[in-house]
Amino acid sequence: IRTYAVIDDPQVLDIFWEKKIHVLNTVYIWGKDPLDLVAQRVNAVKNHPAVLMWVVGNEWNYNGLYVGLPYPAAVQRVKEVVSLIKEHDRTHPVATVYGELPSADTLAQLHEVDAWGINKYSGLSFGNLF
Q1: Sequence-ordered list of residues with C-beta below 8 angstroms from that of 28, at least 6 positions apart, any chain
Q2: In the structure, what pLDDT confidence band is assigned to residue 128 with cuts at 50, 70 and 90?
């Protein structure tokens, strides 16, 4: 499952693990969270077997991490958070969730992101996405 909020309680992850569920654990969703929380959240559960990968943001290109950061500032914040996560855990991939498809420039700026979640809103079909 992909969480919307952080799960930093190993006992909660134990329940998922008992049910053979892996977790894409969101560790940064709100742009006003202090960056030092990222290390705390990652270090709290990085060795838990239920953690499959870390997630940064949700459609942050639309919401500016829910605090209205301008797009360039949101990109920079995501970049900083991804880097912090990788400082504290090199064993799990880091994903981010974007609204629609990111541009080549955005992909280049966020080259440390290992996986991209795409929320695509095109009605009943994917249009010419593929």
Answers
A1: 37, 38, 41, 56, 57, 65, 81
A2: confident
Paired sense of beta strands 23-28 and 94-99, if any: unpaired
Residue type at position 62: Y
Order of all β-strands in the sheet with 94-99: 23-28, 51-56, 94-99, 115-119
Collapsing DSSP to helix, strand or coil, 90 comes out as coil
9-26 mean pLDDT: 98
Beta bridge partners of 117: 97
Using DSSP, state whether 53 is helix, strand or coil. strand
Tens-place pLDDT, residues 42-75: 999 999 999 999 999 999 999 999 999 999 999 9
Nearest to 79 by CA among 46, 56, 104, 97: 56
Terminal CA-to-CA distance of the chain, rounded, Å? 24
Cα 37 to Cα 5: distance, rounded to the nearest angstrom: 13
Residue type at position 23: V
Q: Are 25 and 7 in contact (CB under 8 A)?
A: yes
Please, what sign has the CA dihedral across residues 122, 126, 128, 130?
Answer: positive
